[in-house]
Protein 1
Amino acid sequence: MNNEQQGNPYLNPYLAGFLLGLTLLTSFLILGAGLGASGGLARLSAWCGLCIAPEQILNSAYFGAWGEQPLKYYLVFMLAGILVGGFVSAVVNRRVKIQTERGASYSAGKRLALALLGGIITGFATRLARGCTSGMALTGTALLTTGGVAFLLATFAGGYMTAYIFRRQWHD
Amino acid sequence: MIETIFSNNNLSSVNAFLVSLVIGAAFGWCLEQAGFGSSRRLAGIFYFRDMAVLKGMFSAVITAMLGLGFAFAFGIIRPEAIYIPETILGAQILGGFIFGIGFVMSGWCPGTAVVGVASGKFDALVFLLGSILGSFVFNYAYPMIEPYYNWGDLGISHIYQLAGFEFGDFALLVTVIAVVMFWISELVEEKFSFRRTAERGSGLWAFSVFMLIGAVMVMALGRSGTAGYKVVETGLYASDVLLHVEMGADHIDPEDVARELIAGQKRVALADLRSREEFDEWHIPGSVHVPVETAVKMLERYRDFDLIVLVSNGSTHPGQVWVVLKVFGYKNVKVMADGLRGFFDRVLKPVSLRIQSLTESEEHEINHWRTMFLGSGMAVGSASPPGIGTR
């Protein structure tokens, strides 16, 4: 029934959070900027667009500002780092398993449809809000910016208000 | 004081990319260790089954926040050496709300989904493809939604300033809230998932006490007042500061001050260093009264402005304060040449009293200045920085 419990148990979330906080602090002190994930994804999106229709993307108001080489950006490299770090940790702790995570009574097709639609909505929202859980909620709140705190509260509001609708995908 | 890759303007260098890669790897490692490579665990917070997201997230927030508090208090880093994400309040509330819906629908957010892909989750890969598509949709919709994109632009805005708090006091408040939420999370998990996690107990006690002590120390350091304002190594060379003086980069002509204020393009703070009585009698509309003794502390909130102009009757006091501000790492500060006497002489003096011959456009400009600065005084209100006049 519980398909998440393979490999070593997870680290205590407070300790993991503390180490994450130290990573963020290091980023502030060396890089002079916080963490971010959606920025790199959006750059990847612009790059995909350039491969398909370069003229159109370069002339668009939003992606166009990133020029012909949108991947030459620090957050793209941070995104690659997240993949590497996550992979090393998952391998070392024997937690890599190809699967579609869902409740036992929910179909994989429906679960993937929700993941896709949620992804589209999320990708759009990060551009509007200028960041995601990493760049806005985590980094912005640690810096006590008004926008970071507002984004964090709004995210929880949006999540809790609609959680009931999407509950079935986790039913075993 | 240390400089960052951002403050050295090197964020697009190969060096910055390598550092980002390493920091990203540490970030990804932490996320996977916390169990955030599992959508079931991430979504758990919305059903009160698994509060790991809240625990991990707020532990990270208060750790980094208090660490920064210490770094600022001991003068290890200047606040402006760090890129502060801007606040566009409306866009971020709307975007955050939509983001929350996407989060609970998919069980992923961008960073965690990358870790999900790294641990073999197919739903994470589909989510990321959706996210890339969503950014693409945004690009096409951008011309239509631009007003929402810029809705509620507050620039760099700190919530503690809006609430009338000092950084340290607010950091303590946030820490207390976080610790209370940790304990509530433990109770919630016990109630909704009928299990008592191993995380509760002595470990959480120790962590709570450790964080609260840290927060009290950050607050006390901020309160002591001297911590942030004692002379620290700014990395400046005396010759650089003196070169600024020699080049005349330390002062700005009154005419240019008038033009900047009226144009309203830059964020300009006009600091009047005279006595309160003189200030109350008359001051340039939009200027703020700053007693010489407290100038370093009071001007802190204008540190990131494009320009801070120091004004007094003459330019002796502003010149002396300029040097002190330079030592404290202010970059954008200038003295108004010839002081208020110069402002009266070169900006406000009526055309009819001027000896030199003037072109028609010069006369026009002087008359415009006179209406702006001597008229109702309201006209340049828009050029005054936010917060000025309210405190």
Protein 2
Amino acid sequence: MQEIKNLIIKDIILEWRQKYAFNGMVLYVVSTVFMCYISFKLKTNSIEPITWNTLFWIIILFSAVNSITKSFIQEKAGRQLYYYQIAKPSSIILAKIIYNFLLMVFLGFLGFLIYSIFMGNKAENLGLYLLSLTLGALGFSASLTLIAGIASKSDNTAGLMAVLSFPILLPMLSMLIKLSKNAMDGLALRASYDEILVISGIDLIVIALSYMLFPFLWKS
Amino acid sequence: MRKIWWKFLAAGLVLYTAIFGLIGEVPRQPILNETIRNVYFHVPMWFGMMALMISSLVYSIKYLRNGQVQDDVYAVEFANVAIVFGVLGFITGSLWGNYTWGDPLPKDPKIIAVEVGLLIYSAYFVLRGSFEDEQKKARLSAVYNIFAFASFMPLVWILPRLTDSLHPGNGGNPAFGKYDMDSNMRMVFYPAILAWILVGVWISSLRIRIKLLNNHLQDNL
């Protein structure tokens, strides 16, 4: 536990020291939202609720892929070797997943705030929408962290990252879009138990698998 | 691998299903009519694909446990043939859909699921192609294979049951087994499943042997 906590704190401190990477991610979200604002809202001044929802999730998906890609390439190989010596692989992956989860929650909520300022807030049940955002952040961070670990071993990290992660994230994304659509329609929490259950199930599977498989990646 | 009887069994069963699938008695169903015979060819493709994907998964796990290069070859070739079965199932399905649903590619969660599945397994081969080092390639792709399989399964088994689907057995539609298939059809359908699984394993075993012999030759050069 202590090890995991230390590793998370290390990641946060590192991020704080190299603020440019963090600012880059925030700017990525803001400028994507602004692009959508210009292409949809400014031109036609109307956007279908379904398009509004899907567009938001695609923005979140791309910023997640973009920001989690650097999980394992940010630090030099020498330092990775050092961590290999002093920490268990299972605590490293858990620390990375928790850290990326915090990052994704922050980016997701920030993205939602900016998105609703520019494109208007169409979510009637705000609590449920934010819940789906949190569940999405958890699933995205868990699966993308493992895939970032795989992709970081190759020369073409960014390209491989997109190819490997998009099909894997698709089932989760389609469930999330469904759940957040319920939230937009203002349905009560009770009506969406099915979706919440399935998404939490997928999240759990993904976390458990990342936890089990990461030691094999870490060795190479 | 060296035993030969199951190859005769596979060939015999495929022949049997091809003949009796086309001349056997089938119940008259509205809309389906004679196209119901496609169930002997379309559905076994998915069973074959699933069986091969599971074999590929098992060999990936085996590779991670003991690091034998042989197991990696097994995993790759099973996945390769699984993709072929997936494509065949896709084609037979869209032919069938063209005549019964009036559209070769209707909006259906199962069709989306198999498209995603084919994307996942194509990504697996892209991943393998991007490493030079054999050990690294084998280990990373084994990890991805297990991960991909686990995230593909909810897509196929859970999501179509939650949403509306044109396929029988999903979204409240009755499954084939309940109403549409009589005992005549079952006599052909179950052997057909077995036959195509065996043919899939046969094709993969041939490919595996070629690959292993190639590896052997290269080692001795």
